[in-house]
Amino acid sequence: MKKFILSFGIILTGLLLTACGSADNLQGGTTSSGPKTQLTGQTDSSYYQGVIENGRYQTSKSRGVSVQQESNQFNIKGFENGLLNISKKQFSTKKYIFQEGQYLSTNTVENWLNRKSKTNPTGLNPTSNGSTSPTKRNPLYLSQIDEQDFVVQNGKKLNLSGMTIGLAINSVDYFKKSQNGPTLQTNISDAQVQSQGKAIANQVLQRVRKIKGVGNIPIVIALYKQASNDSLVGGSFFDYSVNTGSSSAVSTWKPINQQTYVFPIPSGQKGPNKNDQDAFDNFKSQVQNFFPNLSGVVAQVQYTDGILSGMNVNITTQFYSQTEIISFTQYLQQAAEKYLPQTAPIDISVQSTEGMESFLSRGINQKNFTAHIFNSY
Amino acid sequence: MKKFILSFGIILTGLLLTACGSADNLQGGTTSSGPKTQLTGQTDSSYYQGVIENGRYQTSKSRGVSVQQESNQFNIKGFENGLLNISKKQFSTKKYIFQEGQYLSTNTVENWLNRKSKTNPTGLNPTSNGSTSPTKRNPLYLSQIDEQDFVVQNGKKLNLSGMTIGLAINSVDYFKKSQNGPTLQTNISDAQVQSQGKAIANQVLQRVRKIKGVGNIPIVIALYKQASNDSLVGGSFFDYSVNTGSSSAVSTWKPINQQTYVFPIPSGQKGPNKNDQDAFDNFKSQVQNFFPNLSGVVAQVQYTDGILSGMNVNITTQFYSQTEIISFTQYLQQAAEKYLPQTAPIDISVQSTEGMESFLSRGINQKNFTAHIFNSY
């Protein structure tokens, strides 16, 4: 059955994409009268295909809310990437097609993200208690809502067959006493992040079940703890639940044991794994000494169940010549293979003030790094 | 013989890199007393290995002169990349190791790039004729000098065995009448670019032959016509010569038929190839319509002997979410394979204000594009 669905998915793509005859039109049609639906194609099976309607990407109904509200872009990218990975556990990229959230509008999401009040009865953040003391006020817990829809082809239609909703909870809530005053912060304990997140999740699930068109699809809800605004890495997911049938309250939470860090770990602070930290520090010192001028070397790292599950190394250097960049990149490839941990996928980018100069990447089961040096004519 | 050298080169690398015992030291030693020499390693045979001494890259003796003097970075990168390609015709990446120029110092290059005068007798640009009229003054012709050394292993030493010198000639010379005055320009005809470039090349060859340690190695000299400062693509090489033995004057110039353009070609202007331009325009309009907001699509293109030999597409878009970037990149892969010319290597980068979001690449003999989406934790 699974194999059938897989083949079907591939045929669907093929049909939609080969249906187009003329050279200036990528579109195929699923219906002759309705909107022309097309899929984005799939780079590889680690990504979902997306939905194109009438030649244009079907964007989220709440497009741009997160970008407008979040100060730390790592909390947006980490949140969305992580949520996709959770979705993939439940909704296979081979069977399901990804659709940007179509059921929660900008207006809805903005109201939900605000405090509950007389004028905003649907607010999911607590009513103000009047205090402006960092430790006494009611902080805002909920910071981002991301809806991901999963559809499957049924005849000529794409039918909603699953949904994932991510809720990002503040670990720090930033506020000002007056418009031009300094930014203050209320720290939120892990226990509060968890209990508030779960309470909000129940309300969200209940509301989403009632939205017209959603029905009895499986709804995954996942909870993310945001990093602080000055963090060089995003936060991490800590719990998720799969809610099947008509359930409108979460019965079982599955914990996610995931943490993010920035390497190098500052001296005196405890890191996740001494071996990995030493390996990175050795790599860093080799790389920093390559040029007479210093190169900056930092990494975002992620641990899952105590094991390194991903690393993004960012190297900043001064551009002197293309030949230096070529030599540097080749050296990095050797140094990375020699020093950096073997188990996790690793990206390394080399940046100058002009932008990205080169980058190296090693996938999860690959032995060697591939390198790309950005050319210019 | 060639095969022997090839193997030898690989063994050399292997020796140098496996010679190091401790985990925190990449260095191998070629001599026990002198500087420890190491190579950068080779990503693939399209790149030269570079030279590392005592753990540090052996930088050019005139490091940074071009970066300081050139306003248009495309003229630096295009010049250096193009020069490497000319070098590869003469000095195989399998036999030769690349060494940043060690014979022309910053001081020498700066003097040569200046006007000839009583205080600067070695200046390779003409003495001022006193005029400040754009059409009557003597412009500066020579704008960049790039020295590339090619060495081979001989016992425990790396011996200089070849050299390539690139000379970049202005097509426009920018000047000011007074320090705070407006920037004016003197346009230089193609005929002048060629004749002045060749005259300067003869002087340079004569001087370089006399430098201690250079001897009777083959010296390649290549001439590059710079693009204007506002160009979105660099210039191109138009002539080169291989000067063997003790020759100190160029006897034979080999023309290079290479041009660079920016796509889209402005309407009303003549481009290099109507089919390629139409293909790009179709790609562009597909891509620009993908999101409700407009994406910018421009390309640097290079033609060699009338045929497209390379394309760098730069797409700028607004970041709304990681899932949009994933869908966009997958769509681009299909659109690029469908529309863009098949023969040439093509890079496509997707940029937002946050930097590079994703990129796609297809090598010279590859059928499909590979894509990489930059992740964040």
List the helices and strands and how they pair.
The structure is a homodimer of 377-residue chains.
Chain A (H helix, E strand, L loop, with lengths): L1 H17 L18 E3 L11 E3 L2 E2 L7 H5 L3 H18 L6 E4 L5 H8 L28 E13 L2 E13 L2 E5 L6 E5 L2 H21 L8 E7 L10 E8 L10 E2 L2 E6 L10 H15 L7 E9 L2 E10 L5 H18 L6 E7 L2 E8 L7 E4 L4
Parallel strand pairs in A: 6-9, 14-15
Antiparallel strand pairs in A: 1-2, 2-3, 4-5, 5-6, 7-8, 9-10, 10-11, 12-13, 13-14, 15-16, 16-17
Helix pairs in contact in A: 6-7
Structural description of this entry:
The structure is a homodimer of 377-residue chains. Chain A has 7 helices and 17 strands. Chain A is an alpha+beta fold and 377 residues long. Chain A has 2 domains: 4-256, sex pheromone staph- cam373 precursor fold (Roll); 261-373, GMP Synthetase, Chain A, domain 3 (2-Layer Sandwich). Chain A has a 6-stranded mixed β-sheet, sandwiched between helices. In chain A, strands 12-13-14-15-16-17 form a 6-stranded mixed β-sheet, covered by helices on one side. In chain A, strands 1-2-3 form a 3-stranded antiparallel β-sheet. The radius of gyration of chain A is 23 Å and the shape is globular. Chains A and B meet through strand 3, helix 3, helix 6, strand 13 and helix 7 of A and strand 3, helix 3, helix 6, strand 13 and helix 7 of B.
